[in-house]
Amino acid sequence: QVHLVESGGGLVQPGGSLRLSCAASGSIFSIYAMGWYRQAPGKQRDLVAAITNDSSTSYRDSVKGRFTISRDNARNTVYLQMNSLKPEDTAVYYCMVVLTTTPRVGPQDYWGQGTQVTVSS
Hints:
The protein is an all-beta fold.
């Protein structure tokens, strides 16, 4: 069984910063890609940023230059540093990890429980 625990969300003023963390634990054999998604009320869940197992990164256009994704392989943890936050960044943020639990089973997606980020004055 695999568990993803997110932390770091909250209320911040426009222009402020937050750092999200997501730690994976349990029966993990190997972790591949890790990423962050977000979902605002009434909207679909969108990919915000992703990082591969060789640390290649990608971002949606609206967060480029403001958000940074990183990972700590020793801790099975992915981070999202969010700077210069805007009201339109308000959403529930979910981490997603692609991993295998045994060498005989292909990689699967696992999701965190979500953490609320609210950007408001």
